[in-house]
Design a protein that fits this description.
The chain is an alpha+beta fold. It is about 45% helix and about 25% strand. The strands form 4 sheets. A 5-stranded antiparallel sheet has the order 2-1-5-4-3. It has a 5-stranded mixed sheet with strand order 11-12-10-15-16, sandwiched between helices. The model is unreliable at about 1-10 (pLDDT under 50).
């Protein structure tokens, strides 16, 4: 052994040694690195791989040594990477850089690697040394987080909840080991669904009764669970906004006390019915209901009892008409029903059912109330406002004739 070999600053004489012998001492260091290491010679043949590289690429070391380094590159990238490698070897001076590259495993699967490259000079000639790691999962996780973030921005911007739900299900299904995913609404219907949903699914609440259900292939990692939770939170925001919008739209066209249509919705339904009447020739009926002596209920028993009576009357009137008819609270103790395709006989029949429903004993405020109403009917095929005025005029005739009766405008 050279007497100066162990002295600081003295480089031992390596002599004429093979590449394997040359890398023998540094190999202990390279083996200890947490990253994959691959060294290739100018002719492109692999001179060294460490254990991590064996695991990353799926080859035993003995099978890689001496093989073209292109073996580890996807076919579509080999020409590009080969030209770069030739350029690196022909560049004078030290060369060091980091980049993202595509790698090819023995089983044919690809991955994205974060690699540091450099030309190292040895007594056997220059070697291209690549040190790196697989960042495919990190890249996928980042892409998932960006997708969830973009979905959150869309939710806050007012994107359609059904579209967001569909996007959420597709994101989960395409990026996580999930068999099936579903956004289920409180009523049991699915806003979006893909794949089988079983009782083994993970259920995350996303609103009052709404839930996100995912059925994993196996236990999810913490990062995967966090992604599902983030998606659920985004959907909760979207569905809360949807519920608010639905409530606002509902309140805009419904009476706050009885839940019946208000004048705005009544006008819309009446105009729609009359357009159909003009097209099909059948008459549209307006039945105007005015409860007799309702003021006495408020004066004697209070407005709370009066409100309870009106709510019950509204429910009874809805039951008395046909399923496709519209009952609206016109104001105070007045109700209006819009019924399509009526003649005088069918109009009187519906009016009779409404009158009978009102006259049934009605308990409210610990009192059994006995009520009656006057009903005016008008039939027509145009002019919605005029039709309502005619039905109102018929009501006055019914009241003048003794109340608790039906009059048809003529």
């Amino acid at each position: 052994m050279d007497a100066n070999a162990d002295e600081p600053g003295v480089v031992p004489d390596l002599g004429e040694k093979s590449v394997d012998e040359l890398l023998l001492a540094p190999s202990a260091i390279l083996e200890g690195l947490p990253d994959a290491v691959v060294a290739s010679a100018r002719d492109g043949r692999i001179a060294f791989v460490n254990a991590v590289a064996e695991q990353l690429f799926g080859y035993p070391r003995a099978e890689l040594l001496g093989r073209p380094v292109q073996t580890l590159w996807p076919a579509r990238l080999r020409d590009w990477y080969t030209r770069n490698m030739e350029l690196y070897f022909n560049t004078k001076g030290p060369l060091r850089f980091s980049t993202e590259v595509g790698g090819l495993r023995r089983d044919g699967s690809e991955f994205v690697g974060e690699m540091s490259w450099g030309i190292v000079e040895t007594t056997a000639g220059p070697l291209l040394l690549a040190i790196g790691r697989d960042i495919s999962e990190r890249r996928a996780a980042e892409a998932r987080r960006r997708a969830v973030s973009a979905m959150g921005e869309r939710a806050l911007a007012g994107a359609d909840a059904a579209e967001l739900a569909d996007d959420a299900v597709q994101l989960i299904r395409s990026t996580l080991p999930i068999v099936g995913a579903e956004v289920r609404l409180a009523g049991g219907g699915a806003l979006a669904s893909d794949g089988p949903i079983t009782e083994l699914g993970i259920r995350l609440p996303i609103g009052t009764g709404d839930e996100l259900i995912v059925v994993p292939e196996h236990d999810l990692a913490d990062e995967e669970i966090n992604l599902v939770r983030a998606v659920a939170n985004t959907l909760a925001t979207a569905l809360a906004r949807l519920r608010d919008e639905e409530r606002t739209r509902y309140e805009a066209v419904h009476d706050p006390l009885t839940g019946l249509a208000n004048r705005t919705l009544l006008q819309d339904r009446l105009e729609h019915a009359l357009r159909r009447s003009q097209r099909d020739g059948a008459a549209t009926g307006v039945l105007f209901v005015d409860v007799d002596n309702f003021k006495q209920v408020n004066d004697r028993y209070g407005h709370a009892t009066g409100d309870a009576v009106l709510v019950e009357l509204g429910s009874r009137l809805q039951t008395a008409v046909r399923p496709g008819d519209t009952v609206a609270r016109f104001g105070g103790d007045e109700f209006v029903a819009v019924c399509e395709e009526l003649n005088e006989e069918s109009a009187r029949a519906i009016g009779g059912r409404m009158l009978a429903a009102i006259q049934l004993p009605l308990p409210a405020g610990e009192v059994q109330h006995q009520l009656s109403a006057s009903i005016g009917i008008a039939l027509g095929r145009s002019e919605p406002d005029e039709l309502v005025r005619q039905a109102d005029a018929a009501v006055y005739r019914a009241k003048a004739a003794g109340r608790g009766r039906i009059e048809l405008f003529a």
